[in-house]
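Batch manifest line 256
LIGAND: zinc ion
JOB: complex structure
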Amino acid sequence: MLCATPSYALHLAEEGNAMGIDIKALKLRVGIFGAEPWTDAIRDDIEKAFGITALDLFGLSEVIGPGMAMECLEGRHGMHIFEDHFIVETIDPQTGDVLPEGAEGELVFTTLTKEANPLVRYRTGDISRLITEPCRCGRTHIKMERVLKRSDDMLIIRGVNVFPSQIEAILVEIEGLEPNYQVIIDKAGALDVLDLQVEVNDKIFSDSGSIKQLQKIEQRIVKDMRDYLGVSARVKLVQPNTLKKTDAKIIDKRRI
Ligand SMILES: [Zn+2]
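JOB STATUS: finished
ARTIFACT:
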């Protein structure tokens, strides 16, 4: 059994092949993948690379992490939500109105068995659709479609949830920076990479002998992004007024 983000699984396959390991000869039979958006094309790639059956998994860090819903081996169309532990609804993200089962909307979860940190009608920000048709596996738990959209601006980078406002909060705490920044997210092989460009202020820019100071700022940003958000960033400081006010702050070049 292999459990990973889909992109990390593909990365493992690539690295394994590069090291001369026969990935298909491993005794893996099933893989469970989630924590980032993926498609059936990626599922095919993983299944071919490892010679396994790849199943989709859903979970929220705020609830229990992975394992709130999962595909069955027989159905493989939608993930069964563990309704003995969660009540699920879909709502209109604008009005908050509950939608009929089967309509696309924001998933809302209520926990039934959590004791330490129960959640009542917790809005996930994840847009999906509930599938009420009976599953060929015989389970009666309702199913949900794979989440490919959000109702907010949350980014998922290597399975880690990041809001642009969190990046901003880090940058404003660091002296010498302007609030102007641009994040570019792309893929390097199977894995996400995050490039962050940030403008320095005039004072830092005109300071003589400031190379060391610039390096210190750069390292501080990299460290804070890692420590507070759990994300590796490639940081580049740029001159004041390099980034236009009209430029998008977040550019996501990944294709899913
Ligand atoms: Zn099923």
